[in-house]
Amino acid sequence: MTSRIGRVVLWAALLAAAPAAARAQGILVTDPTIDVPSLAGSGEILLDRLAVGLSQTTTCRVFTRNDARDLARFEQLRQQLGAGESATLADDLVSVLGSDTLIAWKIGKVGGTYVVIARAFRGASAFASAQARGITVPEMIRAVGQAGADLGKQITCGGRPEVGTLTLEIVMELKQHNETVGTISDLVTTATRRDTIDVRGGFRAPVGKAEFRELSKLVTIGKESLSQCPAPGGYKDLPSSSRSDTTIDTHGGGDTEPSVDITVDGAEMHLEGLISDALKSLSEQTDVTRGVSCGKPFGPDTEKSTTDARSSAVDRAAFDVTVPFDKSLAQQSGSTSWPIEINGFKGTGTLTWRLGPAVR
What we know:
Layout: H1 4-17, E1 24-29, E2 33-34, H2 43-55, E3 61-64, H3 65-80, H4 87-97, E4 99-110, E5 113-122, E6 125-134, H5 137-152, E7 164-179, E8 183-199, E9 207-231, E10 234-256, E11 259-265, E12 268-277, E13 280-293, E14 296-310, E15 315-324, E16 332-342, E17 345-355
Parallel strand pairs: 1-3, 1-4, 2-4
Antiparallel strand pairs: 4-5, 5-6, 7-8, 7-17, 8-9, 9-10, 10-13, 11-12, 12-15, 13-14, 16-17
Helix pairs in contact: 2-5, 3-4
């Protein structure tokens, strides 16, 4: 006959062999082995106590067989009442059934002392353990919770947080100065982009919105020079110069389908994403020309044009950062910035995040 620990090891080995996409980053707590006859009817109460202790100190989602049973019954009732399938409950059931960490534990008595021993399995091997003791029954109950809390400190799940918001802001500037024999030109372009990404958790893809603006101002000055101009009695050298101000304001945005990868490794969280979409834009150009021709001022002459079209090029924005992760916090939030330099543009990228924990 297979022992209880033996069955747990076999179960863990089967879970380890499952496809990675089907395995959730969670903990499934098995029913306790109770070697104290007087506690034989207390298994469910003690199971809940250990699960509570675990959930207070681990980043993983903690489940018991009761959770799986209740979720399945509630989902069945919903569908019987015609409410349809709940994506959230479906995700929860996947998390329960695909939990990649199993807790096997027992309560025994050595002399007059209750002893609680709990071990965590991933694959076929135990990788963490905790032990607590108590002399009286109340002390034993507290010891169960303490063993769970001590074990939870040793277990970190590497899955991404479930839900939250990422905001990517990019601000860049380009400055160019050119001077020839007859002209001086100065170009200043400011480009800004803001992406908001809704991370929805489970198997649901993230969705996003983008807003962008690129404002270019070009000033071209024709240096003053003498030109032969018609005059009474012939031609006369008279001063001529010009100034042209061109402003191009391109702005737009729309819905995006970002790719986001969020993983946790110990005390660090890795956030990586790519937004690659053709976004609708509106480009407004204004040209103002003024100057002096043959000693006579002219202008300002103004011309305007507007182009409304979807960008033919794909607009891209990306981030790849590693930031601190504090498993003791219910929400991970913060902001980090980095320098950007591309095609003559210089600026800063800033990522702000507010994410729910990988477990709840």
